From TrEMBL:
Name this protein carries in UniProt: HEAT repeat domain-containing protein
InterPro entries the UniProt entry points to: ARM-like, ARM-type_fold, PBS_lyase_HEAT
GO MF annotation terms: oxidoreductase activity
SMART domains: EZ_HEAT
Length: 666
């Protein structure tokens, strides 16, 4: 037996291109060295000596590494062995099905396809994981030869494995599977998962061949049941398939007619909403010469449907189909408090100018609060600066309902109407005013960002009213000055409210450069932060490209996994976030994006003894992308010093060897 003192000996052989030495090392008494010598041979030139050695490794208990290396070398003569290994692994305790499948996929070719197809008849009685591997391999190869055997035994897979088979048929995308998929989608005997999988597989078939041939009943009829399925995703998928044909679209209009009729066919609201949503997404597909009835039907559903989801979807369909002509129906729908915001958004997005009477709708004292709120929202979103005086007047009028005044504040903020800033500041700090109005007022101050209003926003940030306080913290992000950043820092201190801490970090990120010193200080005391705030803090620091932010990220990434007092960091639910999970990991991955040929410090630090092990591979890959001699030396030093060798180490050595022109074979 060849003696190899350590993994380092094997790595040196690799870096010297010593194929013969590695072949001998596969028989080493040092099992770990033998394992990685076998793995490294997968990068060598495919010679009879290498192939023979790898076959011999299969008799030495090095199955995984030998099979992987044979696959990397594309040794077609190994296909029968791999197929036999896969077949035997169904009942073999070595469980080599995964590596055998991966190897077969890597080699590919007709022989592999035929071998996998031959295994189809064994699938119904096969072990679960083994069956999944074979089906996934057939799906990856998109082998049309597998369609007939899979269809022939499909019913034997029910109920446990049918979903996996259906997914495989969908991945293959052969129209011959369409009839069986339609039956499964239609049959009430299929469970929810199977019906949904069948419809997804039908979507994967070539769209140009739709509808697929089916004698009786028509394809569209087989989809009627699925379109009314209790599962919303299933109904949506069936709706999209029906929309492909004229007969299918006619049925979808019948679904809407039934929903509009008193005592019409029972259809779940989500199925009706799915039809409307598809019309909104593809209005041209549903266009007809005589569209009056269809538009009237959508308007009726917008006005009278019982479910808000249907009314909301009908509004979208009507706006997409009719455009500006839908304004009348949409204006009336502003009274609907459940869908008013959606309707206002649709009106603001209409291609033609927004109705001039919107200001009248807003100021009309007899109008409902919902309609006036919706009108204000449209005016703001549509950029109607001419409406600012009217909105300003309503905001200042104490007799105006609070909801209308709140919407006016939002609209003035959206219009960036600076003249409203003093009034908004006064309302935001007036504790006699309703809390909702104050919250909307301080939010509008954040949209304006007028420096003179900062004291008002700071005061609101300390308000006992939760909504006012939260929106004020968000608004501080519009003030890139020390007073704002210091205030935000207080909200990220240990023991702070988690929601406010998240909002404060987001605001600090929006402020940009002036907030960097605060972010750096927060990173130094990351232990004790509210849950998930550490991850957001990392994102904020990563947005700054300079050395100061890099240093802060490095401090987070290399922080020890335990505190100095020996106790472990906090776990989820303790209102405190560890630097080790997930902030430590997030900081490590952020540093991977910062290394350059001029500054390798962040990447090399991630390879140090105190770094998170999950950062090692991305850091090495980043060094390999830099590709300088210095970067390669760092990679080699890390690999030679590692205590645990993984397959990606092999790839790293291969990359360095290739860059240095080291030939790995004759």
């Amino acid at each position: 037996m060849e003696r190899a003192a350590s993994i380092c000996d094997v790595m040196r052989m690799r870096m010297q291109g010593d194929v013969a030495g590695l072949c001998r090392a596969t028989g080493s008494e040092d099992h770990v060295a033998a394992v990685y010598a076998t793995a490294m041979l997968g990068s060598a030139v495919r010679t009879p000596e290498v192939v023979e050695t790898l076959h011999l490794c299969l008799t030495r208990g090095l199955h995984w590494q030998a099979l992987k290396s044979l696959a990397r070398l594309r040794v077609k003569s190994a296909v029968p062995l791999l197929l036999r290994t896969l077949a035997e692994s169904d009942h073999n305790r070595l469980q080599l099905d995964e590596v055998a499948c991966e190897a077969l996929l890597a080699i590919g070719g007709p022989q592999v396809v035929r071998g996998l197809v031959d295994l189809c008849e064994r699938l119904p009685s096969g072990r679960g994981y083994w069956t999944v591997r074979v089906l996934d391999a057939l799906a990856t190869l998109r082998a049309p030869e597998a369609v007939r055997p899979l269809l022939a035994t499909l019913w034997e897979y029910l109920p446990d494995l049918a979903v996996r088979v259906v997914r495989t048929l969908g991945a293959i995308g052969d129209p011959r599977a369409a009839s069986a998929l339609l039956v499964l989608a239609h049959s009430p005997a299929s469970d929810t998962h199977l019906r949904r999988a069948a419809l997804k597989a039908l979507h994967a078939l070539p769209a140009g061949g739709w509808p697929p041939p089916h004698r009786y009943p028509a394809v569209e009829q087989l989809l009627h049941t699925s379109q009314r399925d209790p599962d919303p995703d299933t109904a949506r998928l069936a709706t999209a398939l029906l929309a492909r044909t004229e007969d299918g679209r006619a049925h979808l209009w019948d679904v809407l007619r039934g929903a509009a009729e008193q005592g019409g066919p029972d259809c779940p609201p989500h199925a009706v909403a799915a039809v409307c949503a598809h019309i909104a997404a593809e209005p041209g597909l549903f266009a007809v010469a005589d569209h009056g009835e269809h538009h009237a039907l959508l308007a009726h559903l917008l006005r009278a449907a019982a479910a808000p989801a249907v009314r909301r979807a009908a509004a979208g369909a009507l706006a997409a189909s009719v455009g500006a002509s839908a304004a009348g129906a949409l204006v009336a729908a502003l009274d609907d408090a459940h869908i008013g915001d959606t309707v206002a958004d649709l009106m603001a997005a209409l291609p033609e100018p927004v109705l001039p009477e919107l200001m009248d709708l807003f100021t009309h004292p007899g109008g409902s609060v919902a309609r006036r709120r919706g009108a204000a929202r449209v005016l703001g979103l549509a950029g109607r600066t001419d409406a600012a005086p009217v909105l300003h007047a309503a905001l200042a009028d104490d007799t105006t309902p609070a909801g209308v005044r709140a919407s006016a504040a939002d609209a003035l903020g959206a219009l960036r109407h600076a003249a409203a800033a003093p009034l908004l500041a006064a309302l935001a700090t007036d504790e006699e005013q309703p809390g909702t109005l104050r919250a909307h007022a301080v939010q509008a101050l954040g949209s304006l960002g007028e420096p003179d209003t900062l004291p008002a926003v700071l005061a609101c940030a300390r308000s006992p009213h939760e909504a006012v306080r939260r929106r004020a913290v968000v608004a501080l992000g519009a003030f890139p000055v020390p007073d704002a950043t210091r205030a935000l820092e207080e909200f990220v201190a240990p023991g702070a409210e988690p929601d406010l801490a998240r909002a404060a970090v987001r605001a600090l990120r929006e402020i940009g450069g002036p907030a960097l010193p605060v972010l750096v200080r927060l990173a130094a005391g990351a232990d004790g932060l509210p849950e998930d705030v550490g991850h957001r803090l990392v994102e904020a620091l990563a947005a700054h490209p300079g050395a100061e932010a890099t240093g802060a990220l490095l401090g987070l990434a290399t922080a020890p996994p335990e505190r100095s007092d020996g106790t472990t960091y906090a776990t989820s639910g303790e209102c405190r976030l560890s630097r080790s999970t997930p902030a430590r990991e997030a900081a490590s991955l952020a540093l991977v994006e910062r290394g350059s040929a001029r500054d390798l410090t962040p990447l090399t630090a991630l390879l140090g003894p105190n770094s998170w092990f999950g950062a090692h591979e991305p850091a090495v890959q980043a060094l390999l992308r830099i590709g300088t001699e210095e970067a390669h030396e760092h990679v080699l030093a890390f690999c030679y010093g590692t205590k645990h060798f993984y397959p990606w180490h092999v790839g790293a050595l291969d990359a360095v060897a290739a860059a240095r022109g080291i030939r790995f074979g004759p």
